From TrEMBL:
Pfam families: Abhydrolase_2. This is Lysophospholipase-like protein 1. Residues 13-227 form the Phospholipase/carboxylesterase/thioesterase domain. Belongs to the AB hydrolase superfamily. AB hydrolase 2 family. Gene3D superfamilies: alpha/beta hydrolase. Its main location: cytoplasm. It comes from Cavia porcellus. It is an enzyme of class 3 (hydrolase). It comes from the Eukaryota. It catalyses: S-hexadecanoyl-L-cysteinyl-[protein] + H2O = L-cysteinyl-[protein] + hexadecanoate + H(+). GO terms for cellular component: cytosol. GO terms for biological process: cGAS/STING signaling pathway; negative regulation of cGAS/STING signaling pathway. PANTHER family: LYSOPHOSPHOLIPASE-LIKE PROTEIN 1, LYSOPHOSPHOLIPASE-RELATED. The gene is LYPLAL1.
Length: 239
């Protein structure tokens, strides 16, 4: 594991594969967190690091910016928004700027010899929303997308972009706690249904009594899904 700075100025925490690197996973944290913080949280929940024999995990940190839901205080967030709700306009200027910065991170992996089809994008909460914008509006040739406790706004630019799409879209793996009081379970369900209606192959897993958090069962299911999308070179699920 190492911390480094990305080409666009994004700091990131990297967990290297134990064997030969043949795939990459970009895992985006929730609002106010950091790449290092997300990695630590996952390690606490699993009682060990999330690691793979052949997959490099990159945990970038969002740059600090004023965040409207915190009355304009500075926070590490991927984009700004008027409020945490699915019925307000998206702040597309900040979303698009971050898509450009994260694209540089993807391009860096490709330059290092990793095919786009061997790259997964995902995240927790705001990070999952950012990953859906990044994949479905800009990088439809990645291996897949995952969104944990996340949602898209009702009039999201993602939906508008997919109405004009053709060809195969990356599969979405979504998880949500039924007791989530910050990002409502119904928002996650609506997002999943809307994406499915626009041609995205989706998997949606509900976790009874789970709040706005990560659980061990959820992360273990995510790990299994990751290995189906990014199998080892032999085609077997390398641990």
């Amino acid at each position: 594991m190492a911390a480094a700075w990305g080409p666009g100025g994004l700091q990131r925490c990297v967990v290297s594969p134990s064997g030969r690197h043949s795939a990459s996973l970009i895992f985006l944290h929730g609002s106010g967190d950091s790449g290092q913080g997300l990695r630590r949280w996952i390690k606490e929940v699993l009682s060990q690091d999330l690691t793979f024999q052949h997959i490099k995990i990159i945990y970038p940190t969002a740059p600090p910016r004023p965040y409207t839901p915190m009355r304009g205080r500075i926070s590490n967030v991927w984009f700004d928004r008027l409020k945490i709700s699915n019925d307000c306009p998206e702040h597309l200027e900040s979303i698009d700027r971050m898509c450009r910065e994260l694209t540089e991170l993807i391009d860096e992996e490709v330059s290092g010899g990793i095919s786009k089809r061997r790259i997964l994008l995902g995240g927790f909460s705001m990070g999952g929303c950012m990953a859906m914008h990044l994949a479905y509006r800009n990088h439809r040739d990645v291996a897949g997308v995952f969104a944990l406790s996340s949602f898209l706004n009702k009039a999201s630019a993602v939906y508008q972009a997919l109405q004009k799409s053709d060809g195969v879209l990356p599969e979405l793996f979504q998880c949500h706690g039924t007791a989530d009081e910050l990002v409502l379970h119904s928002w996650g369900e609506e997002t999943n249904s809307a994406l499915k209606s626009l041609g995205v192959s989706t998997k949606f897993h509900s976790f009874p009594s789970m709040y706005h958090e990560l659980s061990k069962t959820e992360l273990e299911q995510l790990k299994s899904w990751i290995l189906t999308k990014l199998p080892g070179e032999t085609g077997k699920h390398n641990e």
